[in-house]
Amino acid sequence: MSRLQFSLCGSYGRDDELDPYLVCAPPVRQEVLGLINLNPLTTDEIAARLGLPQEEVTKHLGALEKAGLVEQTSHRYKPNFAVFTVQDQQRLEPLLAEMAGLFREAVRDNMDIIRSAYAASGFSKHGFSFADLAYVLVGAYILDYGGLALRDAGLLIASKEMPGGSYVFTGFEGDLRNLRASWMWGHAFAFGPFTFFSHGELPTEGGRLCFPDKAWRWWGEGRSEQEVTRTMEELGRILVALYDAPTKLDKLVGRTGLEPGKLAEHLGLLTELEYVEEKDIWCSLCPVVDDTAEAQIRRMVQEIWAGLLALAVRPYWGALSHLYWETAPARNGIDLREAFNPIHHVIFEQALRLLMERDDIPWPKCHADGARYAVWIEHKKDGQ
Predict the structure, then answer these.
(1) CA-to-CA distance for 80 and 68, rounded, in angstroms?
(2) How far is Cα 45 from Cα 331, in angstroms, rounded to an integer?
(3) pTM above 0.90, yes or no
């Protein structure tokens, strides 16, 4: 069968045996998933169709089952997550493209609301223009994270409990879309009062040269959770201090409480990753969403999503349900609300691409790793 691409919405731990990406990586397991996605099969039937020893098939099924990615019914296996065949994707695409066009129109028609939220959030006082924040506000907060409005409306499952975490995992057969180059990858992780974000494309290979991606690699290299958290909180203090006001090095020592050697080390890393720059004084290149900005953004998202639900989602739900009924995930018993998680990502990714291609908002910055994405942090002063 054609290769599978995978996406995940939610979070999972650092146990390799429960990491859905790693568990599904071996090509033979993707062949197994492709077979049982079309029809539930026994171990013997899978072994016969793939020409493999039954013991080997049992081992692969055991790994998939341990991670919660397949389930048995009457000794037959089927996927426990949505795997869209090429035919499924082709069947859904015209409707999703129409919905994406409406999403784009809704954003474009409400640009005054978005600009007002930007102005009220105080970004300009810290040297960040609307163009600097447009992708963050539209791509991340409205189209992506704002999709929780679908959950609140009973139309979407944002995550479900799995052995390795809480997430919705999805497979896409073939290469009708390049997921790594899609505008749907939002990474976020909180370290004390600081949450580090990246959103946009992924590099062709590996992770982004930014946070939280780099912090995750530190864990993978064996650094302790305590050490990584302490480092990230120190980086957060530096970024908030420089966002508040560009500062000379000696004064930054006092404002962050860091000793000079550690501060210089952190500034070197932040400079390399393009979070700060040194001119006559140290300046921030990283926007900070504080409590005031977060409240303004939340109101903006709620207002725009009220219109999106009324104009671009609910009128199409019946047609979407009808089309979904004929897909492999539906036949395997995957709730449409769970499948709508990746479907929504496909819709907003297409809408976001349209907004950038038609100059409604700027493209995010291209970084040293070759990918285009935005970075920022949220800072909660109460630490909650």
Answers:
(1) 7
(2) 19
(3) yes
